[in-house]
Automatic annotation (TrEMBL):
UniProt xrefs under SUPFAM superfamilies: Acyl-CoA dehydrogenase C-terminal domain-like, Acyl-CoA dehydrogenase NM domain-like
Domain Acyl-CoA oxidase/dehydrogenase middle span(s) in chain numbering: 130-220
Key words, A-Z: FAD, Flavoprotein, Oxidoreductase, Transit peptide
Family in the record: Belongs to the acyl-CoA dehydrogenase family.
Protein name (record): Glutaryl-CoA dehydrogenase
Acyl-CoA dehydrogenase/oxidase C-terminal domain location: 233-379
Amino acid sequence: MTPLDLLDLDSLLDDEERQIRDVARQLVADRVRPHVADWYEEGRVPARELAREFGKLGLLGMHLTGYGCAGSSAVAYGLACLELEAADSGVRSLVSVQGSLAMYAIWRYGSEEQKQRWLPALAAGEAIGCFGLTEPDHGSDPASMATRARRDGDDWVLHGGKMWITNAPVADVAVIWARADEGVRGFAVPMDTPGVSVREIRRKLSLRASATGEITLDEVRLPAAARLPEAVGLKAPLSCLTEARHGIVWGALGAARDCLETTLAYATTRTQFGRPLAGFQLTQAKLADMAVEWQKGYLLALRLGRLADAGRLRPEQVSVGKLNNVREALDIARQCRTILGANGISGEYPVLRHANNLESVLTYEGTSEIHQLVIGQRLTGLSAFA
């Protein structure tokens, strides 16, 4: 048991869950940790190379079944997300967007032809997917999306744009959501389709070890077979977000744990005024409060994972997890930075990198305010969105 596992939470996992967690942790230690600080500083990530590595271990779409997917439990998927984000939120985002957004959308709403075409390659990391919902002028309000899909004979024609799309600069396929006369519809769009263009978003101060882009759709003509036949209405993309948010609930804990472990090691070896920093009451109070919040977040994530595996997880429950765990993880990262002092802003330590990343995680796939309103609607029966 590690010092952070105050409540012996590891005993709540079964052997398979621990094994999957340990495999993900070792992969991160070997393949990501030695390089991620440089990737972050340089604003790049070897996404295709990482995708193939993750695919070999079955981490892509791992909670889905068939088509080359591992069919793991929701808890095992969450534990993998935790280990990935303990290295960097951008690396976990690569896996989340691939598996819980692009792959899940095709797996849940696609035709058999679409599943056969895309899922095995995506699961193996031989292809990369992205998920186009957010737009330049429509983030928290996807119901107001401006991207349009119109019928033209047997074809569909898409026109519009998507913004802040993880994996877009390296993607082979995009799941694009657009408004048609019949309502919101989803499409599996090969990125080499005429009329599709991508601009990589540079000069980010957060999630720098992640490929982010803007997708422009200029009268993109698609065959009828490109439409996801089971995706009808806005509930379809929102259900994909619920899948991805579950991974975020776990992933944020990874960033927080890495900050805590780094800070514990630093505080017990850094000497000031004749004793280690960890020997001062104020430092111990900070560490104690952070460790308690981490344990509470882990229990929350585990509860949501068990509900997901039982088929009983509701969207507002995921909102509770994302609201709490990302908010607390960010607070932990900021507090850890204070203990490290000036060293806390150095790239030699991961703490401020995690804090910067968590600023984005706090906002994407539902801001804290949106999740508060989701929970508020459940509590009161009244919608405050309109």
